[in-house]
Design brief:
36 strands, 380 residues, alpha/beta, 27% strand
Length: 380
């Protein structure tokens, strides 16, 4: 048994993205952190040590003899090999950071140094370090494999740094992989007139709409539909930004929808360090970063022409509409965000989620509903 671990302190640092999942289930690079570990360990028997209200959907375990791995560490081949070498009772530290323990009660410390060691400590690390994560996943996934052939209708630079899975469609687009790899997943589509700069990931069955402008390092997760202008952002999965508008230095959760001409500011007019809502303290806190757009939890949506402030944090199931700029912190189950304090009713939120998910043949499960009921209670 392998356990991917995050404690309460770590988990809250990645909220609102982790309000509905463990840290290891965050998409970072091509795959989630959990799937990247599974690539090296070839195991399906994985559990999570995370918040108790998530345990029905994300299996927990109390097995004392399991391998415990930090949920915020992205593996490389070299790191995975060091973890595999751990004997029972040993725990591994890389560059003074704990990575893994063989057994929950492991006490013998093994210290190693790696030049390329990728760990995330805060939510904004997801987009700030996404270029490194993309490269790690790209190297692992494409090793000893041959890419599908791109159509001659495209303009391509850096062809050796582009990998296309079977079933993907790319026509009359510009792909530039000279600054980082481009990975196009199975049955994905880049529509005509799109301009893509690597590092870039398009997950399976995802779509880039006509005339899109995508700057690296950007990940568009599985089944997402994205258009307009996007820079250095991550869409987790099943989310839509189907129209014009700018999103930069952002992380968008699952089942989100950004209405036409939604724009996020990612830099203050003062060019200063941003302040943003912290789920650890419940307050707006100073950060040491300059660029930040929006961090949006699952199932949240914006109306057309929505304008989002620099470093906006949005909870789950928030429905954002109305004139003017919304607040920088939009709590879960907000209805309106600019002119109203009304809450999105829980049963209505279930109805909307069920309808949206049915369009992709996905079911809103009882476990999902229990998670949302818990979060709804916290939002009151």
């Amino acid at each position: 048994m392998t356990i991917l671990f995050d404690d309460n302190n770590l988990h809250k640092r990645f909220a609102p993205l982790t309000l509905t999942r463990p840290v290891a289930e965050l998409r970072f690079g091509i795959n989630t952190i959990a799937k990247s570990w599974l690539h090296y360990f070839d195991k399906k028997n994985v559990a999570y040590q995370t918040e108790s209200y998530l345990s029905e959907k994300f299996k927990n375990t109390a097995d004392a003899k399991c391998l415990v791995i930090a949920g915020n560490v992205k593996p490389s081949f070299e790191l995975a090999e060091l973890v595999k070498e751990l004997k029972e009772g040993e725990k591994l530290f890389i560059n003074k950071t704990w990575v893994a323990s063989n057994g929950k009660n492991a006490k013998t410390e093994i210290h190693k140094t790696l030049a390329s060691f990728l760990v995330i400590e805060n939510s904004w690390d997801l987009y700030e370090k996404n270029h490194l994560a993309i490269q790690l996943d790209y190297d692992a996934i494409t090793k000893n494999r041959t890419s599908a052939v791109l159509s001659n209708s495209n303009q391509i630079a850096g062809i050796k740094n582009i990998f296309v899975e079977e079933g993907a469609k790319v026509e009359f687009s510009i792909l530039n992989a000279t600054e980082g790899p481009i990975y196009i997943g199975k049955d994905a589509e880049i529509m005509e007139g799109s301009m893509i700069r690597g590092p870039f990931v398009l997950g399976e069955h995802a779509t880039i709409k006509m005339g899109a402008k995508i700057y690296g390092a950007t990940t568009v997760g599985p089944y997402c539909k994205v258009g307009g202008e996007v820079s250095n952002s991550i869409f987790q999965a099943y989310s839509n930004k189907g129209h014009d508008g700018f999103v930069g230095n952002s992380v968008i959760g699952e089942w989100c929808n950004l209405g036409a001409d939604t724009n996020s500011s990612n830099l203050m007019n003062t060019y200063g360090k941003v302040k943003m809502h912290s789920y650890q303290t419940g307050k707006i806190e100073q950060t040491d970063i300059t660029f930040c757009g929006v961090l949006m939890g699952d199932h949240s949506k914006t109306g057309i022409n929505t304008m989002l402030n620099t470093a906006t944090v949005v909870g789950v199931h928030a429905n954002i509409f109305g004139a003017g700029f919304p607040a920088k912190y939009i709590p879960s189950f907000t209805w309106g965000a600019t002119e109203s304090n009304e809450k999105f009713k829980l049963e209505k939120a279930f109805e909307v989620a069920t309808n949206m998910m049915a369009r992709r043949n996905v079911e809103l499960t009882v476990a999902d509903k229990k998670i949302f009921e818990h979060l709804f209670g916290l939002a009151q």
